[in-house]
Design a protein that fits this description.
The chain is built from 13 helices and 26 strands. It is extended and about 95 Å long. It has a 6-stranded mixed β-sheet. A 4-stranded antiparallel β-sheet has the order 1-8-6-3, with no helix packed on it. The protein has a 4-stranded antiparallel β-sheet with strand order 5-4-2-7, with no helix packed on it. By secondary structure, it is of the alpha+beta class.
């Protein structure tokens, strides 16, 4: 009997996975325990093995595709077995659909016959144009008509301002691209409507547009040949109406009334100006940029340009940026999606506040040097900070806590999360019972887990259960920064670089080395005084490493 294999949940936070590679192909024999595929989760790329024996009859997710947990991944069964019933009813669906389509055909035919007159009535008459709510900004989804400059029955010329429209960013003037009479206003002043809703209808005076209003401004597909011919003739008609708004190749130029006036005054040929507005519409700033670039002076007659040069002989030519705007789209990995989701939730839900303290590193540097003189021993400053943080958590358990809503869970164990940067983002392997480890044990385990993280070999259990997190950017020269709390922890420590600077010792200014530590706290569980006391204890441990042995 065939067995359905679904996209597994390979980590506690996994919601969807990517099939990085299939190690078995359709038709291959499968043994229990064979690796079927490599699956990329939000934390690592992991091998997924089969729990069944048989033949791989179906692959539901191809290499590189993303799918939610529990989506059909594969089907394993006996060779030649019929699996159509397991494919979510896909085999039966077409038959039912075709049957229903056959049954509905006569009705559809009669409907089309009975509504033939309506279709004709829904066509947009000659010369009538439907004006829709424009998208006046890249993020605009709906707009509000602040005021109508033209009223129903008014004559409208191409370029006239129809209305003022309030977008999500500003209130902007919206001009007409058509000439005629304003026959219908679809959105009244103060009303809000989505982009592409019918804003107005413009056409010959006295035209009946009731059928267009009823159909929502959509014309029926039964367009006649004469209508197509009229559409083809429109650019020529536009050319005859206004040479100023037409390029040399016959294509139409969109420009605001103010831009047209400025271009006319300065003698600028609009066909030479690149528009930055909607539909490459030329606006005021485009004329100004063109003017300051020096091209306007060439377009103007020499007699008109000469007085301007005499009046402003010392004018410095303004810088005009040149180049092409471009973007590269990179598909977000599962890890990047999860990082974005978790950190956004943490920042939104947990009221963060930050405490910073400066630590004298003279003794820590001397002690580390002595420790590293022991053969086969290597301890980093990060290892010292992790050990000191674990020891400080013993004395301040409220920092080692979690907010659950009704209760605050104070952990009796100390599991240190260590933030590790990888190519696709950030992972946090966990040192279990870090307070019980020696410095050399901490150093060895951090290096091992960091290596696994960079090679995508971390197992889910190696990234679970942290009660406190340390993030260190000191190796990149960052002297001070703040981090977002790694939920469900109540705090995260940000470690900066060791900086050589003047310090005061025994009343004398001498050269010293200091390091800044910033503690981000969740105010729901850690009060300011509690966080300050924790940092005070941490500072004592780092400045006097021998005290960690007491």
């Amino acid at each position: 009997m065939a067995e359905v294999i679904k996209m597994p949940r390979l980590s506690d936070t996994m919601e969807e996975g990517v099939v990085a590679k299939w190690l078995k192909q359709k038709g291959d024999k499968i043994e229990e325990g064979d690796i079927l595929a490599e699956i990329e989760t939000d934390k690592a790329t992991m091998e997924f093995e089969s729990f069944y024996e048989g033949t791989l009859l179906h692959i539901g997710i191809e290499e590189g595709e993303t799918a939610p947990v529990d989506t059909l991944l594969a089907i394993v069964g006996e060779e030649g077995e019929d699996i159509s019933s397991l494919l979510d009813g896909k085999a039966d669906a077409p038959k039912e659909d075709s049957k229903s389509e056959t049954e509905e055909k006569p009705e559809a035919s009669s409907d089309s016959d009975s509504s033939e007159d309506d279709a004709e009535g829904g066509e947009i008459p000659e010369g009538v144009e439907v004006v829709r709510m424009p998208r006046l900004s890249d993020t605009m989804e709906e707009g509000t008509v602040a005021s109508w400059i033209k009223k129903e029955g008014d004559e409208v010329e191409e370029g006239d301002i129809l209305a003022e429209i309030e977008t999500d960013k500003a209130t902007m003037e919206f001009e007409s691209f058509y000439s005629g009479t304003l026959l219908y206003v679809g959105i009244q002043e103060g009303e809000t409507a989505p982009v592409d809703a019918v804003l107005a209808i413009i056409g010959p005076k006295g035209t009946d547009v009731s059928s267009i209003v009823k159909s929502g401004g959509a014309s029926k597909p039964a367009a006649s040949k004469s209508t197509e011919e009229k559409k083809e003739e429109k650019p020529e008609a536009s050319k005859e109406t206004s040479q100023e708004a037409t390029a040399s190749d016959g294509s139409r130029i969109f420009a605001s009334p103010l831009a047209k006036k400025m271009a006319d005054d300065l003698g600028i040929d609009l066909s030479q100006v690149k528009g930055s507005g909607e539909n490459n519409r030329i606006v005021k700033k485009d004329i100004e940029n063109y003017k300051t670039s020096g091209k306007a002076a060439e377009a103007k007659p020499a007699a008109a340009a000469q007085p301007l040069q005499q009046a402003q002989p010392s004018q410095v030519q303004a810088y005009t940026p040149a180049g092409e705007e471009s973007f590269e789209e990179v598909k977000n990995s599962q890890m990047r999606k999860t990082i974005a989701k978790r950190l956004a939730e943490s920042k939104y839900n947990a009221p963060h506040y930050y405490l910073t303290i400066e630590v004298d590193m003279a003794s820590a540097m001397a002690n580390r040097k002595q420790i590293n003189e022991i053969p086969d021993v290597k301890v980093s400053f990060n290892d010292l900070v992790i050990k000191a943080s674990a020891m400080a958590l013993r004395k301040h358990p409220k920092v080692n806590s979690q907010w659950t809503g009704d209760t605050t869970k104070i952990a009796k164990h100390i599991h240190m999360g260590v933030a590790v940067a990888v190519e696709e983002g950030l992972v946090v392997p966990v040192l279990k019972y870090a307070d019980q480890m020696s410095l050399t044990q901490i150093g060895g385990q951090v290096r091992e887990l960091a290596g696994k993280a960079r090679n995508k070999k971390l197992q889910p259990q190696e990234m679970e259960g942290s009660t406190f997190t340390v993030s260190n950017l000191g190796m990149f020269g960052i002297t001070e920064f703040t981090s977002i709390i790694n939920q469900p922890n109540s705090a995260i420590l940000s470690v900066g670089a060791i900086v050589e600077k003047p310090v005061v010792r025994n009343g004398q200014i001498v050269v010293g080395n200091t390091m800044k530590l910033t503690l981000a706290c969740d105010h729901r569980t850690v009060d300011g005084a509690t966080g300050a006391q924790f940092l005070e204890t941490l500072k004592t441990y780092i400045e006097n490493p021998v005290t960690m042995l007491a």
